[in-house]
Specification:
207 residues; three-stranded antiparallel beta sheet; 7 helices; transmembrane helix; transmembrane; ABC transporter permease; membrane
C-alpha cells in the first residue's frame, strides 16, 4: 500500500505570499428596493406629463397641409406637397429629442441606474407620446373637414387636421431614445462593479 501524496497536516503558511483567496460564488445581484420602484414611478409620471409639451411643440412646428373647397368637394391645394410626411417627421424628431433629454436627466440624477429607472423611461416615453399625439390632434385644426370647409366657404384655403400616419413607429421613438441614451451613459460613465476574479485577491494584498 502506498502512502497518500497529500500530507495529513498542511504546510505552514509562507508570510511572503498572500493567502489563497476565499471561494467566490459570483454576484448575486442587488435586490430592487422600494425606493428604486418609487423613483421609476416618478420617472414614468414626469415623462408622461412632458408629453403635453411635445404635443404643443408638434402643433407649432409641424408643417400644415392646405386644403381648398369648391363647394362640392374638398381637395389638396398642393397635391405634390410633402406636408403630411413633414408632420410625422416633426413628431418623430421631437420625440427623439425628448427621449434623449429624459435619458440624460435620469442618468445625471441617479448614476447607478437600475431596472425600475429603465422601465420608467420606456413606459413614460410611450405614455408621453400618446399624450402628445392626443393633445396635438385636439389643439390642431378640427377633424371635421366638411364642416370646416362649409364654414370658411368655397375657394378659401384652410388647414387640414393634424394626423400621425406612422402610428406605432412614432410612439416608439421616445422610449427607444430614452433607454438607449441612459444605458449608454450608464455603461460608459456609471460606477463600475468589482471584478469577481480580482476582488478576492485585492482583499489580501499586503499594505
Amino acid at each position: 500500500m502506498t502512502a497518500p501524496l497529500t500530507p495529513s497536516q498542511p504546510p505552514p503558511h509562507d508570510p511572503s505570499w498572500p493567502p489563497p483567496p476565499p471561494p467566490y460564488g459570483g454576484p448575486a445581484g442587488d435586490p430592487i428596493t422600494a425606493a428604486e420602484v418609487v423613483q421609476g414611478l416618478v420617472v414614468t409620471a414626469a415623462s408622461a406629463v412632458a408629453g403635453a409639451l411635445l404635443g404643443v411643440l408638434w402643433v407649432w412646428l409641424a408643417p400644415a397641409i392646405r386644403l381648398i373647397s369648391d363647394g362640392r368637394g374638398v381637395y389638396l391645394r398642393d397635391s405634390e406637397g410633402e406636408a403630411a410626411i413633414g408632420a410625422d417627421g416633426t413628431f418623430v424628431l421631437l420625440a427623439l429629442a425628448f427621449g434623449a433629454v429624459a435619458g440624460l436627466a435620469v442618468f445625471l440624477l441617479r448614476r447607478r441606474g437600475g431596472v425600475p429607472l429603465v422601465l420608467g423611461l420606456a413606459l413614460g416615453g410611450v405614455l408621453g407620446s400618446l399624450l402628445a399625439w392626443w393633445l396635438g390632434t385636439r389643439l390642431g385644426p378640427t377633424a371635421d373637414v366638411v364642416a370646416h370647409a362649409k364654414a370658411v366657404g368655397a375657394g378659401v384655403v384652410f388647414d387640414a387636421p393634424l394626423k400621425l400616419r406612422m402610428g406605432a413607429a412614432a410612439m416608439l421613438a421616445w422610449p427607444l431614445a430614452a433607454t438607449v441614451v441612459h444605458l449608454s451613459l450608464t455603461g460608459l460613465f456609471g460606477p463600475r462593479d468589482p471584478d469577481p476574479f480580482t476582488a478576492p485577491w485585492d482583499a489580501h494584498k499586503p499594505r
